[in-house]
Amino acid sequence: MKIKKVIECEIDNELSENIQELLIESFQGIYPNNRIYFKQMPHFRFLAFNEEKHLLAQVGLDYRVMNLNGEPIKVLGIIDLCVSREFRSKGIASLLLSEIDKYCVKKDIEFLLLFADNKTLYLKNGFKTVKNKCKWLKIDDRNQTILGIGYEEIRELMIKKIGMKEWTEGDLDFLGYLY
Questions:
Q1: Could you tell me if 79 and 96 are in contact, meaning their C-beta atoms sit under 8 angstroms apart?
Q2: For the N-acetyltransferase domain, which residue ranges apply (predicted)?
Q3: Which residue in 125, 108, 107 sits closest to 116, CA to CA?
Q4: Among 19, 78, 120, 146, whose CB has the most other CB atoms within 10 angstroms?
Q5: Which parts of the chain are beta strand (E)?
Q6: What is the pLDDT of residues 18-39, one digit of tens each?
Q7: Distance between CA 92 and CA 99 in Å, rounded?
Q8: Which pTM value belongs to this model?
Q9: Distance between CA atoms of 64 and 150, rounded to whole angstroms?
Q10: Residues 84 and 55 sit within 8 Å (Cβ to Cβ)
Q11: Torsion, CA 7, CA 13, CA 143, CA 145, rounded to 10
């Protein structure tokens, strides 16, 4: 298996179609079927391919500053990690998370952040659930328009400490959209 880092604006039509098929298969009935992102494009992705160069898995990554209780934090957001149905439960998702960990070494990143309904994979890979009241820009994913500002605790929020800062409960302003 080969894992490749791909900058979003460098994805060609063929790869875009492969990513789109994987996302639609993985997020049935949820994912828009005319694009390869949900609310906003990630900055880059890690893609896992088999020896035949068939796309097995993908994860989007978004680097940005957020505000945690009045302090800026540098976050790498994990977006839409998914594995093709026939290759699930083979450690590929954990391999992608490990690749993200390796990428973060000696980078100016303080936390990894994601949302998960099923937390088992992420707990196994060093993430923890946190309780914060989140503030974010609400986007209508179908029309790609701004709906307003959201402000509530989100139970699916998980983080992994990468840098020296400590995570604290309280207010988390995403300074943008949710992943």
A1: no
A2: 1-158
A3: 125
A4: 78
A5: 2-7, 44-49, 55-68, 71-83, 111-115, 128-129, 132-140, 145-153, 157-161, 170-177
A6: 999 999 999 988 877 788 998 8
A7: 10
A8: 0.94
A9: 19
A10: yes
A11: 30
Beta bridge partners, 60, equal 45, 79
Cα gap 168→75, rounded to integer Å: 14
Rounded Cα distance, 94 and 109, in Å: 20
Element at 93 (helix H, strand E): helix 92-104
Q: Which amino acid is at 69?
A: N
The single-letter code of the amino acid at 108 is D
pLDDT per residue as tens digits for the range 99-139: 999 999 999 999 999 999 999 999 999 999 999 999 999 99
Report all structural domains of the chain as residue ranges with CATH numbers, in order of start: 2-177 (3.40.630.30)
To which H or E segment does residue 94 belong? helix 92-104
DSSP helix/strand/coil, 147:
strand
